[in-house]
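Predict structure. Chain length: 350.
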Amino acid sequence: MVVKEFRELRRDRRTVVMLVALPLLLLVVFGYAANFQVDHLDAIVVGPAADQVAADLPDTVSAVEVDPSADEQDAEDMLRDGDADLAIVARPGSPVALVDGSSLFTAQAAVAALRQSPIVVDTEVLFNPDLETSWVMVPALVGLIMAFIGMIITSLGLVRERQAGTLEQLAVMPFRPSDVILGKIAPYFVLALVDLVVITVLGVVLFGVPFAGSVVLFGAGAVLFLLVVLGLGVLISTVSQNQGQAIQTAMMFLLPQILLSGMIFPLASMPWGVRWIGYLLPLTYFIRISQGVMLRAAPLSSLWIDFVVLAVMATVALGLAVLRFRRDLAPGGRSEPDHAATVDATGRAA
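Prediction complete.
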């Protein structure tokens, strides 16, 4: 039995990867990325005394822009667009610090840094005045729920086709791979949109999360994000022979989304050796869109990079899924058998 189990593990590479890679991933993430402390802050300094105030900022705060001709409204607009973590309106005798409260831990670090600053300023937190955790988490949870539906549920639905033997029947029907993928993901796309509306409305009603921006802009970002995760779900199904493999692979995709997207741990607190992984994850960009639209009423002009990245990711994910699916539907293109399921009780390949 011991020999048989080792032989099964040798053939079941996904389980081996999870046994080895998952502990290493957790160690790296919690060792380097699990940090709530933000050590560096970007500030915008405006107003008549901007040059003097910028020179007296504490070491943890860097002035990325100093504009004596700008006023408080300009500072609020730049914070809304995500240009900095805080803005200081340097008025003679009564400077005011405006803090972006849509990033919870960054805002807390900014308030603490200003208290230790030699500059006596009044602090005002924008977009999340009471620094409510739910205001920051609900927009992120909307994306996480859609990622769960898109990756796990979609991949399981397509793998069932393979296990039931109906995937081969699709090969003799007048369907292109793109037709099959569109037909399979359409129901999940609709269900995910329904969940999107329900979760967003409940978040607004139950937790008092504001929705300050454009519903159309939020919906456009959600559609792009859904296309990415649905494409990843189809891609996972094309490399999985059964539902267990699909769940394993989907979880390996989902775990980094939870830990490295900025949903729990701020990206600004992560070292670059780990942070770059977060910039490869679609949830990172949807969180920026959802928090920007819901909390700051951010316009498209400040979120266009996130939209472009999601559009590119959707194109790549769906394109790879179609290519993989075309191979499965082609004559003789059946995927390799599941070796782990074809080992008999003696430990030899059946």
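Summary: Strands lie at 41-46, 61-67, 86-89, 96-100, 122-126.
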